[in-house]
Amino acid sequence: MHSKPFKTPALPRRTVLAGLAAAGATAAMPMRLRAQEQITLRWWSPQSSPEQLAAYQTQIANFEAQHENIKVVFEKTSDEGYAPQLAAAFASGDVPNVVTHLPSFAVATYWTNGLLEPFNGVIDMIGPDKFYQGANDIYEIDPGQYAGTGIGNSAANMIWLRTDLMEQAGIDQNPRTWDELLSAVQKMQGGGIYGAPLPYGRNSMTSLVFIGVIHQAGGQVCAPDLSVNIDTDATRDALEFYRAMREFCPPGATNYSWGESLTAFVSGACATGLYTGRVLTNVANQNPSIADHITCDLYPTKSTDVAPWTFNDFPSVFIPKQAPNMEASKQFAAFLFDPEGYIQQLHAAPGHVLPVLKTISNDPDYQDNEIIQKYSAEVELMSEAAANGFNLGWESRDHMPNAKAGEIVNSGVIAELVQRVVLNDENVDQVLGETTARIEEIMAS
Amino acid sequence: MIATQTITPRLERSYARLGVLLIAPTILVFSLVIVYPLLAAIYLSVFSIYTPTLEGNFVGAANYVKLLTGKAFWNSLGVTLIWTVGTLTLQIVFGVGMALLLHQNIWFRSLARSLVLFPYFLSTVVAVLVWRWLFNDLYGAMNHGLMQLGILDLPLDWLGSMPNAMIGVILVGAWKYFPFVVIAVLARLQTIPEHLYEAAKIDGAGPIARFWDVTLPQLRNVLVVIVLLRAIWDFKEFDLIYLLTGGGPVTSTQTLSLLVYQEAFGLNQMGQAAAYSVGMMLVMLVFMVVYIRKTGKEG
Fold this sequence. Notes:
The complex is a heterodimer. Chain A is of the alpha/beta class. Helix content of chain A is 45%, strand content 8%.
């Protein structure tokens, strides 16, 4: 039996001193320089179809592979739910690190209230030259300061048409004016198929679509100086058109939002539709029997004298000012435009979110998609329309950015205008007067 | 004798201190979850506050003036009362009826008693999704069934027009919450002494007379409590109505809870929303006082 030689448990003095010095140096270091601290980034988006979620997971995995100490968690929000969720997040200080796909007017609202981190640094990381010219203008709310950037473009109020039904009804060209559209849907309605799935619900889709209809009548919600200018003959014409279309819409259109409206066209229940290019992928997956009989065009206007007006919500990326781990958040926001992940994200719903980087549009990998190739004319038309698109936050090139646009939409005042006049048959003059007063109150708040 | 007199107050003081100590956690929790939010709501209601930043300025009674002079609060109060009375009435009628049925010696009674609780246990979001699908104009089973039976020629717009939307939410609310009435009434039915029914039979009372003269008087106390509790809960119902109709068409199903939510998060006016919620609380206080008085008397 051997006994081990006795050793003192005490550490050598030199080791102890070295350890103390190292600990002191570590404590004195700024947090961000400490070795590989584990951090979690939260990413919010209202766009979360299964294909998009798969693309996000690729982007997250690629980013995490490059940054071993960072974990990214994706959290869903919704088009109808993001405003209250973000309001609560901002109020509590528990904000996500990166938010994507919200409309530009929401970004403007948050920016003017001092809630967002300037995005200039992220745009620099992506490469300003890669963007289409003027793509970031809508986010330059204060001169030289960008509130966010676009993650894509969308042409949200394209009219979708069933060419087979048009042919059966003897319609040889796409409707250009409201009269032509009314005539077309009248001819195509029947046999269990309705003419159009326009929304009449008390929701943001009704508001956003009807703002487009006002413009398609030659009107506007606010004048370029942002004084309220909705009580006009153009709005009255828009309401008359919307009323006339009601009999060609399904009964439940009074409660339709984006999902129901999309499904009504994709399922074949309606002869026309109103949506972005998401129609293409949904038709391919859910109702391929009509895939060879669909096309899209710019939504008709009151007359050929009025130019089409495309609603582009300018899906955005932004970073809340209160977000923790700001440097990592900016790196992740910029990484979302990395070609591999970005193209997969765009391919998740081809034609739905269109690229804002010209380097991506020209990338063969982006063009290498069955749906984009099959519907190249439609995708081209949507891209062009979206590039010249507007929304309530920026109604025309002459308009100032409207930072109250989000609150006007979320208040439901425009949707209520539609419901009161079209569904309840209330006096249009009185309703328009009250609508003007309510929008003025929001603008002044 | 002197020693006993000295010890007794000392003991009493000791017991009093122990009592305070024992009740302190309850008071602390009560203060945190009830008193603080209540005072915070009252405090917020005298400010104009932008929700995301929680910054604003003092406006005194302006929010209450708007509440009293504007149409929004009164319109929503009317909608809330219609919803509460409508759904509560159906809950009581269906609940008592079902409880009476389940009190009988029927086949599979135990299974039926379990199944009847299903809607109450189901998540509201899931229940609403199912009902929205049933009500769907193009694919809903409701329209499909009624059209197959020849009752309807065209699909009915269940949730997008009035009065259908209000009828729809009232029906779904009644379906969701009537099991609560069943549970409470069934428990009371099982404790009604059998000899009361035997005496009534000897006096020649039929089934209907026995219900009115024996069962209902015996259920009176439990029904008062059920009505008050459910009235309070229905009055502040939010998720079911929000998910079914969002308050529409226009504001036809916008209850006070939805109005508060819309003001706080749609318009970002937290101060005004707080004023509406204080107004709502005052209305609910009436229910609460009645409940406390009733349960106090029972005690």
